[in-house]
Amino acid sequence: MQASITSRLATAVTITAILFANLTIGVAAATTTSTSTTITATKYSAWMASSIMSRSQGIMTGKGGSSELLQAGFTQRAFSALAAQYPNDTFTPDVQDYIRASAASVVPFTLNATYNALSYPMDRLSSGNALLALYSPLDNETASFRAAADALRRSIDLNRRNPEGGLWYYVYPQWSYLDGMFSLAPFYTLYSSTPSVSSTGIDSNDTEALDDMYYQVDLLWNRTRNATSGLLAHGYDASGTAVWADPETGASPHVWGRSLGWYAMALVDTIEMLPQSASQYREPLLRKFQGLAGAIVNAVDPRTGGWWQLLDEPGREANYIESSGSAMFAYALLKGSRLGYLEAGSTSSSSSSSSSLKRAKVVATRAYGYINKAFLVREANNTLGYNGTVSVCSLNSTASYEYYVNQPISYNSVLGSAAYILASLEVERLAAAATSC
Fold first, then answer.
1. CA dist., res. 301 & res. 119, Å (int)
2. Pairing state between β 389-390 and 409-410
3. Can you give the pTM of this predicted structure?
């Protein structure tokens, strides 16, 4: 017992040291206005959220390209987590209003299930959770939220599939990406456990949907996982005809950080949503998460504490530490640790990965510290900027090393800053626990 207490205290001291070492940017910014002081001095999550709001990001306009639905949905997911963690903050009503505005902006674009399935990538489903949460049968003004959620759910059934049942990620024939699981798995799961009041003919309490949810996660795992590293490639081509497809598995050749980050977040978020009684889904998802978490810990850059743009090519010339994937991994590892998913005995995890799992919390917290130092930018107007996020990387390319490392970097991309909010929330939980020890 004494050893356990000592271990927890040592971890708390490590985490607290990292947090205070990186608090200077918040303190410096807090000197600008009294309003910002309450946000920035201790809560990077709220500071970044207020910055995203000031830039009007995460609002669907129809002019933002194929990733715009994902930008809106990811913003909603991050802001929903922020509002849930700080329900009584004076800032929270503004956050909740923004979630509603973002979801409302998506509705006109997602009411046609057939169009959704044939014209948008699977990322369209990322808004589904917020749409369901905002709907109330007692409030007619929220009916459009449920209608859009129902259309998104129907679009899964209409989505094109490869011969083995794998969902196409987008319009590219028989190509499936890790990326889509962040949007698919949590929405599929939530919708399947939400009482249905729709007229679409879909039974919300549908185990077939959960079977399919797990099947999609498992199919990608089996097709893209490297047995040596434990890491998963960006995606696969079931036909094996793509220029980049592995002749046996159809897998793409490289481990792209952000695509693996989407998959890791999908696992931890979906496990959290499933009840203990759903052990037929929880247990295999938990085994996958533990295996992947250990591999992610092993792939961290020992010098910086962050993760590479291409995890399978560490240190290679032109490769670099990328900010969105690093934040996603930090979030997934910290949340998994907090929820007990990385503890010995939570599943039958192999002994070879146990040491990596034990290090997950410290590794993820160190990564967060590096992100704060390397990628946060305090703007002149006291908003937070976020740098180092690669723009969209697609398998509709050569999928070569040169392709991935030469994609442009996007400043203030919400694909990075929203991930940073999620990582910040987990670190803020740790800080609160450490200071109360």
1. 38
2. antiparallel
3. 0.90
